[in-house]
């Protein structure tokens, strides 16, 4: 005779394969891996150090913000303002540095400006109960406009006394890796740890899973939401600073429609727009997959006009796949 | 001595008068069955006791001390736990995470405090065992049956040694076998001296487990009497209004 305990114990250990395939990230890794192997075989340009370096650098910026976006999406929200927050952060940085301020001061000011956008988003969403889509659509428009006012809509390519430091930070590399990649790695690890091991992280998923339940259990949902939007704005602010250093110049169309690539990366990486799901690792891999697709189309000589079609297909397949998986269980 | 004493509780949502002048007493270890038609105000009453929203007027006394709850946490601190009608679970989290939601076990890790999953899983598994439920602590709630979800919600209330457990329709959406288990659990709570208020539409459940039956109609309490002195016919009459009051 088997006792209840035996029964419970036995069913607890699903096979490793079943567990693996139930994680969305698994399929993204598989897809990215297949694409990389195919490209290595099909072209002799993909697996070169130079190309890999480019892939790495290009996907980093989208990936950094996709981590912030994933947290927002996992909490059941959306943040359309990240692209505009990037340019606002970049402009605050550039204008101050051009005005002779140090990099450190300008960077803190830039991040403060970004965090202010996030706090504004979060406050309207949490305390005024407005839909995230509408609020962040508003700040998408407002923050970019503010950046134009700040810079008088001129291009900035002179960054005062710390000019070289800025260019080194954003555009340089150490140990063969571009500097923004280090920022990405740090952020991905920190975000993963926070989401998995802190109350704050647990509540992100709780709010996304059942906001009403979260409120009823006494979680400070409103305050938490403000910090969630501040987090995504923070990732955009960091990106604004790094992109400025990488490009060596800033115009007011920096980060334009970047929110779409970022959301695509998050969704492909397993973030559920209905809330409750999403991981930083998934977001990074989603961004990487998009960049690998983009890169492969170029290397294979396929017209860049087809890029959107491929990425669009991936988004829809990723979501359809998720629905299928959930419908089965 | 009364464990819980409600005096003249009224509640209005704007123009809707959900409760008018409800007075009620519950003794320690007593099971009170709260009955009434849809919209009678049962859920509103227990939510007020649980600190979800304040009464418009009236007083709540616990162990003869006047209390005032601003939020659910206040009520929990005072020993009041509630199982909501819709269970209020996060489908995307594990059973253990749901049990501990809002009061997670933490442990130190150098200068940091991190979630203590082993402890939470172990204690949740322990509670499920007490409930004789085959709910697994590490399973995600999304994939659970109605009975298992009920067990998760009930296990939540047992986390702190509660004085009063409120249950809103705990037997509405589960199998017959699970109903028997939930009723067993309620008896076990009573044996521990915990007072239970159970809202239910199912006459057999209430008559099977409740020491006293209270009936509400249109926001008013129309009866509160010992189960032994009542009958399903009388209660039905009280619910529908065929019997004015008892
Ligand atoms: N949050 C609320 N806002 C407005 N009206 C409410 C709210 N909650 C309950 N009511 C109203 O109060 C009355 C009592 O509802 P409820 O307590 O849920 O009844 P029951 O649980 O007995 O079915 C109903 O008329 C209901 O529409
Ligand atoms: Mg109800």
TrEMBL record, chain A:
Keyword Nucleus: no
Membrane-spanning segments: 25-47, 59-78, 90-117, 124-147, 167-195, 226-248, 260-290, 297-321
Origin species: Roseinatronobacter alkalisoli
Membrane topology note: Multi-pass membrane protein
Short name of any one Pfam family annotated for the protein: BPD_transp_2
InterPro entries xrefs: ABC_transp_permease (IPR001851)
The name this protein goes by in its record: ABC transporter permease
Keywords from the named record: Cell inner membrane, Cell membrane, Membrane, Transmembrane, Transmembrane helix, Transport
Subcellular compartments: Cell membrane
From TrEMBL, chain B:
PROSITE patterns: ABC_TRANSPORTER_1, ABC_TRANSPORTER_2
Claim: ATP-binding is one of the keywords in the record: yes
Alphabetized InterPro entries for the sequence: AAA+_ATPase, ABC_carbohydrate_import_ATPase, ABC_transporter-like_ATP-bd, ABC_transporter-like_CS, P-loop_NTPase
Keywords of the record: ATP-binding, Nucleotide-binding
MF-aspect GO terms: ATP binding
Pfam families recorded: ABC_tran
Domain ABC transporter: 4-243
Domain of life: Bacteria
Protein name as annotated: ATP-binding cassette domain-containing protein
Organism: Roseinatronobacter alkalisoli
């Amino acid at each position: 005779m088997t006792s209840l305990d035996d029964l419970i114990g036995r069913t607890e250990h699903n096979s490793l394969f079943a567990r693996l395939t139930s994680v969305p990230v698994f399929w993204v890794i598989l897809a990215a891996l297949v694409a990389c192997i195919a490209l290595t075989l099909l072209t002799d340009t993909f697996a070169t150090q130079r190309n890999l370096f480019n892939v790495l650098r290009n996907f980093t910026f989208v990936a950094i913000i996709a981590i912030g976006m994933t947290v927002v999406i996992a909490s059941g929200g959306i943040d359309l303002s990240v692209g505009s927050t990037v340019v606002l952060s970049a402009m605050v940085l550039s204008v101050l540095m051009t005005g002779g301020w140090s990099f450190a001061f300008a960077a803190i000011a830039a991040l403060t400006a970004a965090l202010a956008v996030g706090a504004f988003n979060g406050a309207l969403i949490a305390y005024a109960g407005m839909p995230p889509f509408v609020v962040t659509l508003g700040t998408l428009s407002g923050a970019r406009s503010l950046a134009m006012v700040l810079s008088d809509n001129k291009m900035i390519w002179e960054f005062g006394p710390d000019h070289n430091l800025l260019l080194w930070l954003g555009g340089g590399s150490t140990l063969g890796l571009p500097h923004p990649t280090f920022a990405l790695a740090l952020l991905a690890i920190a975000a993963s740890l926070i989401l998995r091991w802190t109350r704050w992280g647990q509540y992100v998923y709780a709010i996304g899973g059942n906001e009403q339940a979260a409120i009823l259990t006494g979680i400070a949902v409103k305050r938490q939401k403000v910090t969630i939007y501040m987090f995504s704005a923070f990732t955009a602010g960091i990106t604004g600073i790094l992109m400025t250093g990488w490009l060596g110049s800033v115009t007011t169309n920096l980060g334009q429609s970047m929110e779409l690539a970022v959301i695509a990366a998050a969704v492909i990486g397993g973030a559920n727009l209905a809330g409750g799901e999403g991981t930083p690792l998934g977001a990074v891999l989603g961004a990487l997959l998009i960049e690998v697709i983009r890169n492969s189309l170029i290397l294979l000589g396929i017209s860049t006009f087809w890029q959107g079609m491929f990425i669009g297909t991936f988004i829809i397949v990723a979501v359809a796949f998720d629905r299928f998986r959930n419908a089965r269980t | 001595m009364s464990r819980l004493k409600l005096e003249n509780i009224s509640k209005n949502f704007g123009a809707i008068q959900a409760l008018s002048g409800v007075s009620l007493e519950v003794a320690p270890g007593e099971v009170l069955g709260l009955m009434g038609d849809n919209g009678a105000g049962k859920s509103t009453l227990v939510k007020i006791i649980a600190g979800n929203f304040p009464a418009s007027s009236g007083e709540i006394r616990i162990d003869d001390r006047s209390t005032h709850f601003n939020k659910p946490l206040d009520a929990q601190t005072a020993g009041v736990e509630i199982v909501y009608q819709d269970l209020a679970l996060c489908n995307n989290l594990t059973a253990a995470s749901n049990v501990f939601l809002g009061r997670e076990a933490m442990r130190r890790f150098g200068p940091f405090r991190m979630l203590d999953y082993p402890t939470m899983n172990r204690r949740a598994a322990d509670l499920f065992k007490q409930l004789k439920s085959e709910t697994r602590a590490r399973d995600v709630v999304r994939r659970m049956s109605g009975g298992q979800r009920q067990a998760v919600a009930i296990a939540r209330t047992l986390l702190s040694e509660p004085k009063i457990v409120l249950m809103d329709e705990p037997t509405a959406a589960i199998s017959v076998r699970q109903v028997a288990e939930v009723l067993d659990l309620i008896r076990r709570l009573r044996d521990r001296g915990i007072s239970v208020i159970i809202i239910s539409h199912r006459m057999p459940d209430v008559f099977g487990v409740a020491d006293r039956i209270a009936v509400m109609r249109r926001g008013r309490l129309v009866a509160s009497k010992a189960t032994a002195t009542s009958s399903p016919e009388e209660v039905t009459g009280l619910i529908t209004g065929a019997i004015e009051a008892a």
